[in-house]
Amino acid sequence: MLSTRYRSGIDRFTGRVITGQVHLAQSLATIWLTRLGERVMLLDFGSTLRRHLAEDVTPSLALELYTDLTEAVYEWEPEYRVSEMQLVSLTRLGGLGLRHAGLYYPEGRYGNYDIVEPFGTVASLAAYETTARRAA
Prior knowledge:
By secondary structure, this protein is of the alpha+beta class. It is 24% helix and 26% strand. β3 (80-89) and β4 form a beta hairpin. It has a single domain, classed as Nuclear Transport Factor 2, Chain: A, CATH 3.10.450.40.
């Protein structure tokens, strides 16, 4: 029996090694909060999320956000497929967040989609912080 090859990386706040779903949550936050053209050697990395954040939230804006964020995930994260997205208020003062859920494929970067785990988080859309919570 072979073991699952989880991707690992470094936590941006603590400097500790992270793997699996924690790494995926950080990866998604990086993809969504990076502006297109911001990374020198990867000019097309990121999403167009930030151009929408100063606007009033309407149903058409929410649909644009969902489309932009889902396209960015499909382009840059081979280990995650989004099945649900919802804009949420994170604070009583109106901090905007994104609750999402989907399927995590730990070996998706190798083209292996046989191993699958449910995954969901609530991500802040205002700052580089992600609060990982298991989807029920």
